[in-house]
Predict the 3D structure of the following.
Amino acid sequence: MSKDIKISAKGVDVFYGDTHAIKNVDIEIENKAVTAFIGPSGCGKSTFLRCINRMNDTIDICRVTGDILLEGQDIYAKSVDPVQLRARVGMVFQKPNPFPKSIYDNVAYGPTIHGLAKSKAELDEIVEQSLRRAAIWDEVKDRLHQPGTGLSGGQQQRLCIGRAIATAPEVLLMDEPCSALDPIATAQVEELIDDLRQNYTVVIVTHSMQQAARVSQKTAFFHLGHVVEYGDTNKIFTNPEDSRTESYITGRIG
Amino acid sequence: MLTLTFFAILALALVFFVVGRSRAVAVVRGDVRLLHSRPNFHGTLAMLISAICGIAMLVVVGSLWAAWLERDLMAAILNADQNLSAIEAELVLSDARALASGGIASKTDPLREGIAAQVASKDAWLKWGTIALSMLFAIAGGIWALRSIAPDWRARNRSETIIRRILMLTAAIAVLTTVGIVLSLIFETINFFNNIDWQIHKFLFGTTWSPLSGVQAGKLDPEKVGAVPLFAGTLMITVIAMLVAVPVGLLSAVYLSDFASPRVRAWAKPMLELLAGIPTVVYGFFAAITLAPSIRNSGEAIGLTIASESALAAGIVMGIMIIPFISSLSDDVINAVPQSLRDGSYGLGATKAETIRQVVLPAALPGIVSAVLLGVSRAVGETMIVVMAAGQGANLTANPLEAVTTVTVQIVMLITGDTEASTAAGPAFTLGFTLFCVTLLMNIAAQRVVRKYRELYD
């Protein structure tokens, strides 16, 4: 596994109005690996995730201080356009949210607005590739022009992952991507996340510790806005250094 | 006096409620668990039965007796003076009533005074008789209900049934009123078509509208009831209105829902909705007095002849009137598009404009379409603005700078004109019926679209 750093955060604080949601977080996320954020509800892990592609910009009262560097470049610098940033750092949400368009148009949406395809044939190719990588191509190839909202929950979530892949991002952020899915769909999405590691840097927020243990190489444990412990997943789950981490993963707090 | 009786019956019913309740408790010697229904329901049932018996009697006896009395007095008047026509006799009766109650009559003569004496005595009979009968029934009903009270008496089920019936009755009043209006429209329409010998195509496709000219003995000329100029005028003004209202309304809705800061939205939206609260008559004289002359003047400045009453002026002002409709409804449906869809689009690196154009608006489209259709049906039925600003002459033209007339304007002209109501009503009701059909179809279409939209996110 390559050990180069894709994203590095230094002294990040986030405020929602008067609420101090993230407190002085330092974290370095490895390239082409899966990093899991775990922690009890309200600990700030989703908030921090949303800082990485500046989705918090859409919330008026939210304020972010500190540095987040993507390949050494500060993403909160004035020269960075959040729209361009989000094309590089894609996001998959908790609840599957396909657009009320056809399956094909859902996937073609990103490439079209970013002008990634020069011809219809090229666009077709991107759509097929994305859906294949999202492990859903075989299920939808015969009904590409039917609405994406007609798929099952697990299929919708994989469609959303395919949609995110289609814009050729470098990083994929996933905010509890399996929390609305049944165990079978969850297993499919987890398998998919494992495959995605070959091409993308994946950051996943999850409530399921088993899921974090299964899919991630690095794990960060968030508690009350702090990163309590960050390290190799194996180590966190077998030999945590902090007593709070141990309490959480053995189910005593959270 | 009868109103007072009504309240007396209600008060009586309240007494029966209290008595019924305590009687229910007494029947089981205070152990209310033995009762099928709780004491309150026994009281409620006694109250309802007493009130219904009393009020039903008040209505039935009161109206029947009054009708009988009226006939009796009319007969007496016609007996006394056989030269009177029916209308004159009615006048005598109303004068007599006025005299009897100490009011002012149009004139006083022995006939009127004689009838007045009769009115006074018979009215007293009518009044006291009705009061006595209805109070008697209220008491009888209440006592019957009280006597029925027993531990296994199902007072709750019975009172709930009665209340359900009362609710049904109130709903039926609303529905039956609508049915009645539609039926009267249909009957008058049939009368009108009968009057023009069922040449319906002359009405639907004829181009000359002058229904009341040359009317002889109430017979209309089928050649002069062509409503096409009216339909064309309505259509033209509606199109102009929608050309103003749809872009402005829709874009302001987009601004309010996705761009405005909460503070701007907090005052801008109520302001916009205030526009809907302006009476249409105000819009009307705004169109006639302010906008129409300025359009004419600016037209003259560039060498155009514009009538002082033009479809353009009426249409523009009507469009302004409809803006709040479209913007408010569209704003609601745009807000109803889930934030998760917007987030999904932003997460892919879409700009705000791309998100709105390609995700939000398509998702909200069915709701927007129905808002526009509701706006159209408002425009088609709008009256006051066009009466003041569009003109009255039924001329068929495609030029929005000329005066045109609309269906609604012609209905106003027919009904407020001095032609006999029986002649003018036919064409007026037929136009009204046509209008009703058009707006009904639009509303049905709008509701269907809305239903389809709801299915998408449930």
